[in-house]
Amino acid sequence: MEQQTVEMITQMVLQTISRMEEKSNGYQVPVGVSARHIHLTQEHVETLFGEGYHLTKKKDLMGGQYACNETVTVVGLKLRAIENVRVLGPVRKASQLEISATDAMKLGVAAPIRESGNVAGSAPVAVVGPKGVIYLKEGCIIAMRHIHMSPADAMAAGVKDGDIVSVKADNERGTVFNQVKIRVNDSFTLEMHIDTDEANASRIKTGDMVTIIKQY
After folding, report:
1. What's the CA gap between 56 and 89, in Å, rounded?
2. Residue 162, helix vs strand vs coil
3. Who is most buried in 11, 12, 108, 144, counting CB within 10 A?
């Protein structure tokens, strides 16, 4: 057998063993702490920032998304405002504001915990830009905690798109997160997303590692 073939087979065996060990000990995932942000339609972009306006990129994110240079102010039912809410691009078919439970209390809105994109019947909010104002009858949510994965990561972890898992943070708080949804896509980079409330309560920061410990 040629040396190159032996090396390739050896590498494949080592990768398989590594994945088996990860499954038996729990699959490790890096954390990304997600701050409040908003997704907008092109129509709403133009209402808020001016006719013909297009979002400008500040920083690339996963899955073709990016943080924009643009920010807005959001206003709740109690006329309490949160300023400098980051806009994420590209534009979407429906506008959506993602906030924490603490933000919801400040704004005075009953924002439900939802997966991104599921905004039917969610909380109303006003959005103020430099050129105009929009009122969303629905669209304000608290994002359901989730893990982004590539198909290869999902195979290695023994999960599939839509699965619900539990995840443990092995730090001084020893927090276990239940009801974590798996989201699989070729464009995703492995990362668990939690909001700022969850991160602060569990003493977790972006880049920390957590472990999938249970699958429902």
Report:
1. 8
2. coil
3. 144
User: 2: burial class by Cβ within 10 Å (0-12, 13-18, 19+)?
Assistant: exposed
Cα–Cα distance list, 13 to 8, 9, 155 (Å): 9, 6, 16
Cα gap 15→11, rounded to integer Å: 6
Compute CA distances 44 → 1, 16, 126, 127, 160, whole Å.
Answer: 64, 49, 12, 9, 35
Please tell me whether the overall predicted TM-score, pTM, comes out greater than 0.85 for this model.
no
Q: How far apart are CA 138 and CA 41, in angstroms?
A: 14
Mean pLDDT of the chain: 91
What span, in angstroms and rounded, lies between the C-alpha atoms of 66 and 114? 21
Q: Round to whole Å and give the CA distance between 60 and 58.
A: 7
User: Quick one: residue 59, left, alpha or beta (phi over 0 = left, psi -120 to 50 = alpha)?
Assistant: beta
Instruction: Report which of 59, 37, 20, 45 is spatially closest to residue 157, judged by C-alpha positions.
Output: 20
To the nearest 10°, report the CA torsion of 47, 51, 56, 62: 50
User: What CA–CA distance (Å, rounded) separates 173 from 153?
Assistant: 27
Segment 51-95, tens digit of pLDDT: 999 999 999 998 899 999 999 999 998 889 999 999 999 999 999
**H/E stretch holding 16:** helix 3-25
The answer to whether 134 touches 47, Cβ cutoff 8 Å, is yes
